[in-house]
């Protein structure tokens, strides 16, 4: 027989789960939970109070529990990484949101009142990060369908949002990975014309077509370092040769740590293609 507690606690649990397993009471109430539901869920052991005005689910990240004890929660790149957006390198010092604005040991504090929206988190990433770091996060929000480009343009329409608007102009909704986004950024910074997900007859899409002459594939270990991935890469390489499209392959590690080598290869390859066409 279903008890009243079992009927009432799941909405609270679901809302805390959506917020990252630790949530503020204010945010839960704003999402339609009631004080009675919170009390019943706590009495049933489905949630526990971990700080003044904060509740957590069993198995919540100890860092989030510790932050709750300081009336703080992750934000900026630290929150972006937690919710699955593309973060080039998660900050070594956790960025947190706290309405009180007081120092939190071992953290960078953003003074934030009220619930945090996705736009709030993206705005903090634009403020704190480099252009490329912010591009990766904003682009992933679009690619993962967390928001749209028109929504971003509307949100960043203020006088102080020039940096964000420039980043939004760089977003390509067809990007397939953070490595592809970074490679495209470096190439365009060098002044190259770059088309993303360029369709080649008989083989599908190439990650990038540079100057209309050179293909570039960015290889991530998770996909390409498998038997099936290796076979697909072989077929694609053969088809590109047949279609007369030279193509470079670069690893994710190279894009992350040695982009200058990728750019040097591109310069040399384009010079060779141009010389052969003369």
Automatic annotation (TrEMBL):
GO terms for molecular function: endonuclease activity. Keywords: Endonuclease, Hydrolase, Nuclease. This is Very-short-patch-repair endonuclease.
